[in-house]
Amino acid sequence: MKATDFAKYLSTFLTGYLTGERNVSPNTILAYRDTFVQFIAFMKEKKGIVAERLTLDKVTRECVVEFLDWIQENRHCCNATRNYRLAAIRSFFVYLQYENPERIYEWQKVLSIKMKRHQKKNICYLTTDGIKLILQQPDLSTHNGRRNLALLALMYDSGARVQEIIDLTPSSIRFDYPCVVKLVGKGRKARIIPLQEDQVVFLKNICNRII
Fold it and tell me: Which domain holds residue 107?
């Protein structure tokens, strides 16, 4: 069976363009992939078009708007999630403008779809006593407890996101003075954070166990 133009361009977008030219993170690629998995499911359910027959001429501005409405109505997605799905689709159509310029007018119709405004949640902060209470929870008589305290303290000292902590390796930490940790955030942007002396002691114990 011959692959459709949609399959061809989507495959090169996900496996070549995003990694090779855009150098986006694996998590972003997975999120974009999930968007198109949902879109393909929508086309099958609402339009009767299965994946192997889905072509680019079927992906119109009106169709994309219907898809965005569908994920909100059927999957109960909020405006922020809708906007994230739209961002993934927009990125694909920006790519198409250069890879398939013959239909650039149609691609720009899709790119004209607006994001929906959404109310940002207020950020709640823990009090100093609340932080102390959390840091008192790990059982320091066990290795796992000492590890958990080191990670919790590092998150507090550095303001790191959970994913940034998950991605840490022993090589991310420099124990020579001045001691620092390298965190890699969204868009693979790295930042260097100084470490406090107490934090260094905790991390050395953890890294020695790993090594």
Answer: 5-111
